[in-house]
Amino acid sequence: MQVRILSRALVAHGNRPSHNGKKITAEPVNQQRQFLPDKRRGAAIRKLIPMAKTMHENKPAPGKGKPKPSAAGAARKNALSPRIENRRAHHDYHVLEKWEAGIALVGSEVKSARQGRVQLAGSFAIVRGGKVTLMGCHIEEYEQANQFNHDPTRNRSLLLHKREILRIAQHMAKQPGTTLIPLAIYFQRGYAKVLLALAIGKAKFDKRQDIKQREAKRAMDRALKRR
Questions:
Q1: In 10 A of CB 179, how many CB atoms?
Q2: Cα distance between residue 41 and residue 20, in whole Å
Q3: Which of 15, 25, 71, 193 is most buried, taking the most CB atoms under 10 A from its CB?
């Protein structure tokens, strides 16, 4: 192993002078033993061993030479990106179950979403052909994109596992009247995510009850602050 490392180091660094002014040249592996007993050349070669080992260890694996973005940088970007909530969702629907899904966006849509220019009110998702599609979501155009801008109200694919899509389809088949609605859009580790919910619409009575409960809670909070 050392003989191979030595030969690679000598070839990589070219001819190097020794202490007596002579040049050390790379020789075939079967002739390495002829100059190893020489003290001066042996000392020079011993100096090259750590260098050759370092080069061998630091050599990147195929396809892994490009550095990955740091987790700290992604966390800072996520912190700066707002979380867009669907405020009408809990007022109009009973949420039964939630899933986190990815969303397929183009570059200008990502830029607009990071600026919080997204409207989720009135949007919904459908399951068709084994895929989930988000419809009615409005992402404003990005000013700097010019002619390469996107359609603000286009349909966008949601990314879920097959077992999750199958589970959603089964729930919707068993419970008529249910629908898929987005509760929020946010960024996680640099990727856009959608909090998707299986929900059923509220009756007017339920909405009135919710309003009464909110008003009672506000009255209690005001009374506690006065004390």
A1: 14
A2: 10
A3: 193
What pLDDT is recorded for position 29? 47
With bands split at pLDDT 50, 70 and 90, how would you rate the model's confidence at 204?
Answer: low
Return the structure tokens found at 52. 């050759």
Alpha-carbon distance of 227 to 4, in angstroms, equals 83
Let me know: does 163 contact 181? Beta carbons within 8 Å.
Answer: no
β pairing state of 138-139 and 118-119? antiparallel
Angle at 127 between CA 103 and CA 186, to 5 degrees: 25
Residue 207 tokens read as 């909405």
Distance separating alpha carbons of residues 94 and 75, to the nearest angstrom: 32
Q: How far apart are CA 33 and CA 213, in angstroms?
A: 90
Separation CA 24–CA 44 (nearest Å):
9
pLDDT > 60? residue 215: yes
Give the residue carrying structure tokens 């020794």: 18
The answer to whether the CB of 134 falls within 8 A of the CB of 182 is: yes
Distance in angstroms (rounded) separating the CA atoms of residues 220 and 34: 94
3-state helix, strand, coil in the chain (%, to 5): 45, 25, 30
What letter would DSSP give residue 136?
Answer: S
